[in-house]
Specification:
13 strands; elongated
């Protein structure tokens, strides 16, 4: 069974089709955690993650691979495949949940439902990544998601150097589109679609500990 390092198990009992968070009400008494109440169920709360991490197996080995293919006799293409999962700061999460449970002993927690997620290729990322298959339709933020990336020539060079020098390769930014509501002053709701951004680090120092995952030609 995968040890996905989330420190928080996502409850999947609620269908995301009916799960609508109230995004102008963060009920977590924390500067780190974000927890939204449900628009209808007074005991349902949605936890937004702090970061995204590379999932690992029971022995702590990342679900990550790097391989290369020849584009022609001269050029090579680098491909990264990985499984990602949003994660939470355990201490902050437990404190926030405890505060809510004091007020509502019947409280239940799950991941934030999203319409779609995508990898945002802004800034230097557009120079490092040529193609990707990291976008997904619908689910709960907190579920594992696959991500495959084809590196540009520059990206391939930077990645291999990060492994060799044990440095950070890059930080990816994922954007989750949420179908939510905002509670108005009179207690009624208005539909609101928002984007929730979460970052994931691709760290050469971490990955260099598992040379079997890196397979250049």
């Amino acid at each position: 069974m995968k040890n996905i390092m989330t420190l928080f198990f996502i409850t999947l009992a609620v269908s995301s089709a009916w799960a609508i968070p109230v995004v102008n009400e963060n009920v977590a008494n924390s500067g780190v955690m974000t927890i939204y109440p449900d628009h209808q169920d007074p005991h349902r709360y949605y936890v937004a993650p702090n970061v995204v991490m590379i999932a690992t197996n029971s022995e702590g080995v990342p679900y990550f691979s790097y391989g290369e293919f020849r584009k022609n006799l001269i050029n090579k293409i680098g491909v990264i495949s990985m499984t990602l999962v949003p994660a939470y700061t355990r201490e902050e999460l437990e404190l926030a949940k405890a505060e809510i449970l004091k007020k509502d002993p019947k409280a239940e927690f799950s991941g934030v439902p999203f319409i779609e997620s995508k990898l945002s290729l802004t800034g230097v990322l557009a120079e490092l990544i040529g193609e990707n298959e990291c976008n997904h339709r619908g689910g709960l933020i907190g579920q594992e998601q696959s991500c495959a990336i084809v590196l540009t020539s520059k990206g391939r060079t930077f990645f291999l150097k990060s492994i060799q020098k044990r440095t950070l390769f890059t930080t990816l930014q994922f954007e989750y589109a949420l179908q939510a509501v905002v509670r108005k002053a009179d207690g009624s709701f208005v539909d609101q679609e928002i984007n929730h951004g979460v970052a994931v680090r691709i760290d050469g120092d971490q990955l260099s500990k598992y040379p079997q995952l890196i397979n250049p030609l």
